[in-house]
Design goal:
The chain is α/β, with parallel strands linked by helices. The chain has one domain (26-336): Ureohydrolase domain (Arginase, Chain A, 3-Layer(aba) Sandwich). It has helices at 14-19, 58-64, 67-73, 98-101, 107-126, 141-151, 181-185, 221-230, 237-256, 288-300, 319-336, and strands at 38-44, 77-83, 130-135, 156-160, 211-216, 233-236, 261-266, 304-310. Helix 5 runs parallel beside helix 6 (141-151), helix 9 (237-256) runs parallel beside helix 10 (288-300) and helix 10 (288-300) packs parallel to helix 11. The longest helix has 20 residues, at 107-126.
Amino acid sequence: MKKYLINSPSSRSYTQRVFRQVHPADIPFPSFLKSPKTCSVFGVPMVYGQPNHGTDYGPQMLRKFGLRGELEELGWTVRDNGDIAIDPPHENDPKPDSLLSGKTKNCYNVGKVCQAVHELTFYAASEGNFALTLGGDHSIGAGTVAGILKARPNTGVIWVDAHADINTPELSTSGNMHGMPVAFLTRLVEPTLFPGWDWLESTPPLHPAQLVYIGLRDVDPAERKILKDLGITCFTMQHVDRYGIAGVMERTFDQLYGRPLHCSYDIDAVDPLHAPSTGTAVRGGLTFREAHYLVEAVSGTGQLGSLDMVEVNPGLGSESENKETVEMALALIDSAMGSRIL
């Protein structure tokens, strides 16, 4: 427990001083957001979509390290709605068909949390606010994207992740729900077959043409087939090497041109050298500058209306590793919200 309670910095570290100058850039403001620009913040301390304790401390740590103050320095009016209450799974929770129950761990619990997240993000987006969701594990992406699509059906989704998160229950080898949100969103999974997920039927499905992956480098064989069969645009780390991150972003915007944008950013997309405290770290990820350029470019389109920052896990590393990961996540949020060096 002690290692979760890392101290917030009393003065900026070298990394913060050099790379986290909170300086609002003159970038276009999305026409679908209201003025003055308002950011609705939701903490979702979700831990039941995967096996590691600690993701529930992510929202707390991001706030402790100064999230609100930095957003306000960037000119945002901040409505911090706190953390949603999450009840633990119970033995008597409804379960899917017996053949699938072991393949969807905590299915009902995860589904009900995602339902609450979908309602909150839908409300924020419908009011014309920027929706910023702090995770928690990436299972909550099913809720955020569903809520955004319900409010802005034409939204393009940029899924930044080392993993595709598009396993179906039948194909999953772990049964962990944080590996399935995109399968639910694209309706590869029939929501009514899974207790706690009926609400998803009232939201628009995510069409493959609306989705772009960036940063993939650990994809299951079954997921590879799904991605190819659906024709989903995927930029792996090999593509980042080949085109450079600027080339990847240009190709991303070519596909999603004219759409409002939602960015779902799993911190494990970043190389563990810069963000070690996450549950499924994979070497060979985005460098510090690649990770920042990505969100700077998305922000610079003037079309970004919502953002998830997930899988920050202060329960996995040393105090210095936890601090580095939280600082990295916060710096990425700053860049997405308009911070620039000059």
